[in-house]
Amino acid sequence: MPSEDISGTRKKPHEGGGGGSGDSPGLWRNPSYRVFLGVQTLSALGDSFSYVALPLLVLHTTGSVLQMGLVTALTGVASIVTGLFAGVIADRFDRRRLLMLADGARCLLYLSIPLAWLSGEPVWLIYAIVPVAGCFSMLFQVTYVTVVPSLVGRDQITKANGHLFATYAAAGVAGPALAGFVAASAGPDAAIGIDAATFAVSALGLLFVRFDGRPRPEGEGEDARRGGVREEFLAGAKFLWAHPVLRPLTLLLSLYTFLTYGLTDLVIYLLKNDLDRPDTTVGYVLTAGTVGSFIAAAVVARVRKRLSFGVVWIGGVTVAGLAIAGIGLAHSVPVVGALMLLTMMSGGVAGISSMSLRQEVTPSHLLGRVTSSFWTIHTALGPLGAGAVTAAAAGLGVTGTCLLIGLAIVAVASAGTRTGLLRRRDEQAA
After folding, report:
1. DSSP letters spanning 20-82
2. How far apart are CA 74 and CA 70, in angstroms?
3. pLDDT tens across 189-222, in order?
4. Where does the pLDDT of residue 85 fall: very low under 50, low under 70, confident under 90, or very high at 90 and above?
5. Spatial distance between the Cα atoms of 367 and 374, rounded to a whole number of angstroms
6. Over 60: is that where the pLDDT of 346 sits?
7. 263 and 408 in contact (C-beta within 8 Å)?
8. How many angstroms separate the CA atoms of 388 and 6, rounded?
9. What does the H/E/C string look like for 80-118?
10. Which residues contact 65 (CB under 8 A, 6 or more apart)?
11. Among 30, 203, 311, 411, which one is least packed by beta carbons within 10 Å?
12. For residue 43, which of 104, 93, 90, 125 has the smallest C-alpha distance?
């Protein structure tokens, strides 16, 4: 399940963006934001396309499920490694050019595959391209996060993040389905060719997005001076550690990610093994979770206007924990689907809120490094958590495991009440 993603800066937007406070124009009246949202949607769709089309091409060519899994693993490893230094790059160079470079590079890389397949089936080319494309994908994700506050007003950041969160959810549903349809009708290589086209259109679309992509220090003091590469790399982690709200939030989210990383596996095992349901039922239940993500994107801005960040985050995580505990006790598919929807909706509201908070309190020239550090830290325990959760399910069963996970998540949320998350005024977090 998605945990937390998106960040930004506290600087007010300039040309093409909204205002800085209550007089900000509507997001949909901001042409640069509209184009940027479309660009991000295309790029996310391209990522989800390649996530399915590349393994399918390997399977069609080699017939080996092992090589299919290896391609997927290479993509993940390349993204994680790139995430360690992508923030440094995003804070050093013009961000518009970085976004265009990432999309343009992925277009050319993926386009070379169907062209090569016209004269043969060089599987080695996929193994050469996948890690490089994964690097550019992560660079795009980190960089686009730093751009959002340059396009919209501070009071619009949460709503904009909700829109972006919805595009990822939509791409996660539409991308694999479209890729499967194209692969079945025209072949996986054709699907990859369409994937390359989405990145080309996305790169061209950025030419029509007006924002200042050059990161600048917000002063002439110590923070304004760059150190060496090592100092720049550690700057994001240092900022997180020094911040009274982001420090506990990062630690709590690390625990939350550890506990929930294997949730999809648990739900699939519950439906297939305990409830003896077919694969189509699995798809319906997971789609219900996606609907929850859409609802979270639609309501999060309104919720944040009425409630403080601490109340929203702690409340959302608590509801998610209780819903996961309920999944373990459920014995019917509709109930499991409803609880998955509730889990993804409440977790999505909490996640988008924390993304927006980081955007509001992080200086522009640090935003890339803070984003990289945050994602690296709070996702590092995820794979370990997936292994621990599935091992627990094998020994205790899904019911016992879901109950333990749910109660542990509620405990994580309760721990948040003893930190700086529950402040009376969000402005104090800055």
Report:
1. SSTTPPPGGG-HHHHHHHHHHHHHHHHHHHHHHHHHHHHHHHH--HHHHHHHHHHHHHHHHHH
2. 6
3. 888 888 899 889 888 988 888 776 666 655 444 4
4. confident
5. 10
6. yes
7. no
8. 27
9. HHHHHHHHHHHHHCCHHHHHHHHHHHHHHHHHHHHHHHC
10. 59
11. 411
12. 104
Q: Looking at residue 406, what is its pLDDT? A: 95
Confidence band for 249, pLDDT divided at 50, 70 and 90: very high
What is the pLDDT confidence band of residue 109, given thresholds at 50, 70 and 90?
very high
- Inter-residue contact 97 to 84 (CB < 8 Å): no
Distance separating alpha carbons of residues 130 and 53, to the nearest angstrom: 12
Backbone phi, psi, residue 152, to 5°: -130, 165
Q: Are 130 and 78 in contact (CB under 8 A)?
A: yes
Residue with the two structure tokens 């596996």: 265
Count of beta carbons in the 10 Å neighbourhood of residue 124: 7
Q: Tell whether the model's pLDDT for residue 225 goes beyond 50.
A: no
For the chain, report the end-to-end CA distance as a whole number of angstroms. 29
* Residue with the two structure tokens 């007003």: 153
Q: What is the pLDDT of residue 105?
A: 94
Round to whole Å and give the CA distance between 357 and 377: 17
Length of the chain counted residue by residue: 430
Residue 107 has pLDDT above 90, yes or no: yes
Yes or no: say if 236 and 371 are a contact pair by the CB < 8 Å rule: yes
The CA distances from residue 264 to 82, 185, 235, 403, in Å, are 25, 29, 34, 15
Q: Is residue 416 within 8 Å of 313, Cβ to Cβ?
A: yes
CA distance 292 to 298: 10
Q: Which residues contact 71 (CB under 8 A, 6 or more apart)?
A: 54, 55, 58, 126, 127, 130
The residue type found at 96 is: R
**C-alpha to C-alpha distance for 89 and 10, rounded to whole angstroms:** 20
Residue of 273 and 197 predicted with greater confidence = 197
Q: Calculate the dihedral angle through the C-alpha atoms of 421, 424, 352, 269, rounding to the nearest 10 degrees.
A: 50
